[in-house]
Amino acid sequence: MPNRLETRREQAPAAVVERLVSLACLAPSVHNTQPWLWRYDAGVLELHADLGRRLPAEDPRGRNMVISCGAALHHLQFAARALGWETAVERLPDPADQALLARVTVSRTARFGVARGDIDLLRTRCTDRRRFTAWPVPTDRLDDLCRRAELWGARSEAVTSDAARFRLELLANRAISFLEVEGRRLLEQDRWIDREGPDGIPLELLPDDPDPLHARSRFRPGVLEDTRLVIHSGERVIALGGEHDDVAGWLSTGEAMSDLWLEATREGMSVVPMSQPMEVESTRHEIATTVLTGGFEPHLLLRVGWQAIGRRDLPRTPRRPLRDVLQR
């Protein structure tokens, strides 16, 4: 017999689902491609990779695409919790459909207050590519961020020793030098910079004069003013990955990245993804074996640091309208 005292579970109405998807789509994505599609039917929300937005030259296996979708999946769960809803997530539910990454049921058995600070956090988070200050992130804070990432099934490691950081810098610069001579990649990058429409990276978010002493960027210069002559780099790097270099691992890495990034933002830190070294397989392998000690497959590197006090807020990157990303 059913328990008469069992609390009735309330299914999220369409308006709530729309708001959750809008907040989920504030997640970071490679080149701001926003490579996700949501489908809602009969109380179940599905997350699909938008294969038409995969970067064939830079991301032929779809690693960065799936990581981006994982970030959106975490953003959805985070937003639901902030609005007082519960989520039940089934990851990779259909082995025959590789584009279907998750099914999510949004419901609740009781009403809770809205955590407005968390909603504001989703809207505040951004990718600030300006140079970090000289003040390094303390090791204990890096360790806390790594522990958060591991709650999502990812593996993580902070690169803190001078020897490891120097080795990583050499490997990262070697990877970028390799990628800079591939014409298809350069053309693909340019297609996603200063685009007309609700995606891509505006020039206003790219520093105007890359500093040769600073970590190199894959992008050409933009118009964002950056006081590079008076700021010295104090960045640290966190590697995220998993037991395997596969879709399940990439999805977990994306969720972990989102959780880590939001917590870093809450504490006043800045995070910038660095995927180029992972795009060169030989470099990725060398990082795994000569820089990291955890014995896992790295999927993504994150630069973590402090931005200078008093810098102006960055404009928001554009977002695709809800009608383009949510199907019912």
> What is the CATH architecture descriptor of the largest domain?
3-Layer(aba) Sandwich
What structural class results from the helix and strand content?
A: alpha+beta
- Total number of helical segments? 10
Output the helix-strand order: EHEEHEEHHEHHEHEHHEHE
Rg from alpha-carbon coordinates: 20 Å
- The share of residues in helices is 25-40%
User: pLDDT average, as an integer?
Assistant: 89
What is the 3D form? Answer: globular
β-sheet strand percentage = 15-25%
Quick one: how many beta strands? 10
| Oligomerization status of the protein chains | single chain
Total number of distinct structural domains: 2
CATH C-level class of the largest domain is Alpha Beta
- The span between the termini is 35 Å
User: Could you please say which CATH topology of the largest domain applies here?
Assistant: NADH Oxidase
Low-confidence stretches: 211-216, 219-224, 226-232
CATH H-level homologous superfamily name of the largest domain? NADH Oxidase
- Major sheet: 6 strands, mixed
Organism: Nocardioides daeguensis
Protein name: NAD(P)H nitroreductase
